[in-house]
Amino acid sequence: MSRIGLLPIAIPEGTEVEIVGGEVMVRGSKGELRRRVHPDMSVSLHDGCLSVARPSDSKIHRSLHGLTRSLLANMVTGVSEGFERVLEVNGVGYRAQKTGDKLMLQVGYANTVEFTPPPGISITIEGTNRIRVGGIDKEAVGETAAKIRAVRPADSYKGKGIKYSEERLRLKPGKSGKVGKK
User: Fold this and answer.
1) What are the counts of helices (DSSP H) followed by strands (DSSP E) for the chain?
2) Which of 10, 12, 28, 40 is the most buried (most CB within 10 A)?
3) Average pLDDT, consecutive stretches of 10 residues, N- to C-terminus, the chain (182 residues)
4) Over the range 26-35, which residues count as b (16 or more CB within 10 Å of their CB) and which as e?
């Protein structure tokens, strides 16, 4: 039995939900999101709650049940509160700056790396080493943060590079044969 799929989604004040055919549209203070749900899943709205039902207990329907409910809950949260990922740039001479809409990263390469965010994603810089990626679509925010991190992932020896703020690096010891040799 799906535990996640059975949970109702509470609709906060100021958020509107429309279900037309197989498409769910959620409109809130931050914006509007649309998503087409699988034709086997039935989505209903009553008493300020959104609920998802499945037609049978087959494996595919069980997996789609929880997935559909999670995607719809993320849409409701996104248009009312928004999502955000924070990245840190670590290293001597490594920094991030914003020029217009573009993010300019100086992370140890010969040239500055330019990153243009997709529409609907906002990037802000705090100081020279913290990057905040925000937006209403959780999937797009996470993907954009992953692409920025992939420019120069933090290495496991010195910790230099771009990492998520909540990520904890376990630094490896360097060469062990270095000490005591003449």
Assistant:
1) 3, 13
2) 28
3) 84 94 94 95 92 93 94 96 96 94 94 95 94 96 97 93 94 69 50
4) bebebeebeb
Residue 45 token pair:
């709205």
Per-domain residue ranges for the chain? 3-80, 83-164
* 83-164 has the same fold as 3-80: yes
What CATH class is the domain 83-164? alpha beta
Please list, in sequence order, all residues whose beta carbon lies within 8 angstroms of the beta carbon of residue 163, skipping any fewer than 6 positions away.
87, 88, 90, 149, 153, 154, 169
pTM: 0.88
Token readout for 129 is: 């080493």
Token pair recorded at residue 145: 């943060």
Give the per-residue pLDDT at 175: 79
Q: Is the domain 3-80 a CATH 3.90.930.12 member?
A: yes
Handedness of CA 8, 16, 36, 149 (dihedral sign): negative
